[in-house]
Amino acid sequence: FQPQMEVATGRAVTAEALVRWAHPERDLVMPGFFVPVAEESGVIVALGDWIMGRVCETAARWHRLGLHQRVAINISTRELGQGDFFLRLRHAMATHATPPATLELEISESLAMEMDERVLSQLRALRADGVSIAIDDFGTGYSNLSRLKDLPVDRVKIDRSLVRDITISAEARTICSAVVGLIQGLGLEVVVEGVESQEQMDMLRIVGCTLFQGYHLARPAPEEAYLRAYGASAQTRRHG
Ligand code: C2E
Ligand code: MG
Ligand code: MG
Fold first, then answer.
1. In this structure, which residue's CA is closest to atom 21 in ligand 1?
2. 190 exposure class (CB count in 10 Å sphere: 0-12, 13-18, 19+)
3. Which of 19, 23, 128, 166 gives a 20 to 30 Å CA spacing to 50?
4. 47-88 tens-digit pLDDT
């Protein structure tokens, strides 16, 4: 889990679930290595079900502990393409009695631009029930901006590539602040991903960003360590 921090309050508002493979013979294997292979082979459906179960269980348990944080789950193209994806998600939510408002779905920009009416209507229904929807990796694909405005979306996560050079390049700064303005202009929340320095964060705050995720604030951590740092009693102390 990696926190998304609301910088004004120092609160972790969302924990993004990032899958790791505890391989018996190797170090922890990162999703960049096995998620594409799992998608290719179709194993992503079973893997996705397992992740869905873990996320729904975690979100429900944190809610019972009185932790006011959403848990975000990454959804891949292949998963969303499965006809019964939403049925399985709702089944996992029902099994673990997960309050919809404790869940967030992350859908990449390129995938979001391709979603058909069937997927969109299911997403609208989930959102009407209280699930949050975020566009992930914004700025890495091509967005049809009029389409973005019509998607059932709560927030947009600006990709690290748009933020990386803002402290050294005036052009990067201009692009980044235009993108932030555009998203906010559509009435959506901005989350900045991959923030690695205080300097970046200071600049982003000037252009109106309030939600940050990145190594500068916290690296992804196992649940126990995450809760030690960002659990209920801890969260007001940090970055306050
Ligand atoms: P993503 O959803 O865009 O997740 C953000 C990635 O950036 C994570 O890499 C995170 O560890 C990393 N990151 C966070 N802050 C920083 C920073 O300040 N600097 C840098 N350089 N990197 C940062 P990770 O965990 O290796 O995941 C990579 C991608 O794999 C994710 O990108 C997501 O697309 C996919 N993925 C991860 N978990 C899942 C999952 O459960 N299901 C599916 N379908 N895909 C997943
Ligand atoms: Mg993500
Ligand atoms: Mg991303």
1. 194
2. buried
3. 128
4. 999 999 999 999 999 999 999 999 999 999 889 989 999 999
Closest residue by Cα to residue 17 from 88, 96, 106:
106
Radius of gyration of the chain (CA): 18
pTM value > 0.85: yes
From the CA of 70, how far away is ligand 1's center (Å)? 17
Instruction: Tell whether ligand 1 has an atom less than 6 A from the beta carbon of residue 196.
Output: yes
Q: How far is the CA of 211 from the centre of ligand 3 (A)?
A: 14
